[in-house]
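Lab notebook, bench 4. Still working through the backlog of constructs that have no structural model yet. Next entry is a single chain of 561 residues. Request: give me the structure tokens for it.
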Amino acid sequence: MAVNLSEITSLAMLADARVLSGKAHLEQKQVEWVSVIETPVENFVRQHEFVLSTGVGLGNDSDALLRFVQDVYESGASALALATGRHLYDIPKRVISFAEQRDFVLIEMTWEIRFSDVIHSCMEKINHYQQEELKRSEEVQQRLLEMVLQGGSCSDIARYVHKHLGSPVLITDLLGRVKGKAGCTTEHVTHWQRHCECHVTVVHDGNLHPLHKKMEKIVIGDTPGLLMRIQSAGKEQGQMVIFSVNHPNNLDTNLLEHATTAAALSFLKDSAIEETEMRLKDDFILSLANGEFVSKERLLSRGKLLGYNLTLPYVCVVGELDNLEELFRKNKEGFASYQHWFESMIYYVSEEILVAGETIQKRILTTVQESKLLIFLETTPGTNELVNQYLDLLERRLSRLLPGVLLTWGIGQHGDGVIVFEESYSKACVALELGRKQKGAGSRIDYEDTKINRLLQRLSYDKDVQEVTMSTITPLVDYDEKRKMDLIGTFTAYHLNNGNVSQTARKLNLHRQSLLYRLRKIESLTRLSLMNPDDVFLLDLSIKIWSVGLRDSDVLKEGRF
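Model written out:
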């Protein structure tokens, strides 16, 4: 609430003053300031100001007086009171007519009334109202903060605002998801969701009240309203939407400001709870994967407290985001650093992992450590169709979030049963490692498909096998590093094509003579004959053991073989 002109004109000292125009609007016109002004007006008059003037220099010039009244009206003043009897003896009818046509309040007061007395009385009344308004504002602020501190939710805040304003209220997060509402119909929520999906032009409110600068006029569906940003520590948390409100008064504006502050506190409280819960869940899932629980009973008990049903069969899937730094270089606009971008992306990746699980109606246990994704997916033992369906869906969703993202997956063994988290995780890690070595980044390998590679990797641990393998392949490795000819790739293609030179040349896009030169070079470096089946077997086995187990090992780096 604020002082209105009806209260000002009711002051005892203005008992003899005459309201010449706008009398029907005295109660609607607010007064926030009082000033004395003479010509020129320029920008010295503010909105909602009660202006006093003697009209000095205007008594004999009705045109100048009309321009003066017009300037005061256009400044946004609530009223103009002209003192007559010294410089101004009467107010022309055309001046009064101008004011009446525009519902502008024009007042005639006698010269004997001192302006200082009027200003003192007006400011006394304005200050009284401001103190009352401040008191009510503090009460609202205290009530809302107590509400949040006592466990209240965003819906409680929305109900409080709805009760005082009578308008439907929505409180949403940054993605437009409803966190609290009051007085809203299904239609309101539907219109809001459509509003979030498309670009809507926002009209900024031009009111001079400082808090109005944080408001935006919006139209949702066919309903006008206000949108206020919910912020804390300079970071936007969400928004509050009030339907069917165009011009809130100061008290309503203060209520909305305190409500957004309370909502920001509620968001921070929920965020802290979520972060704590996520930390507990992350630690629990890592403990599952590492087999750190000493008893099945304790494991099931802890899982139940966190909302997990561990009596169902799960298969582990381990993923790696392989090209994040490259994606950051393409999409770094708006982010202060790679770490800032990475944390934001990982948050949304975690959300997509859970949403994909909800879509196929399967439970998910997940944690993200750096760029590695650890997922336990509820499954049906003995089939990998569900896992591939889930990963196909997840990759489609992640490709929209991070266009061009490269994902490498390792899938644990199906049919292991219940409470086999450590075994399934171990197998998924083996599949990821061997799949990357065999097929490179962006591959998807099931543990069941790594039998040969696991056998080769196991062979690579034997010192005698290491010695034979490295003595056979080192000349080719050294030559490829110096000449960039890829003799190892050449032999692999030649062997896959059953020694057919023409087919191999076409496969490698080489001239036949170039291929023959490479094959002779392989024979001269290894001292093996490609016409001898035993030599071909030895070279093929050595390359496979090297690629699976020794390529990046210390054996090669230190030259031990």
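Notes after review: The CA atoms of residues 6 and 26 lie 5 Å apart. Residues 199-212, 554-561 have pLDDT under 50 and may be disordered. Flag for follow-up if needed.
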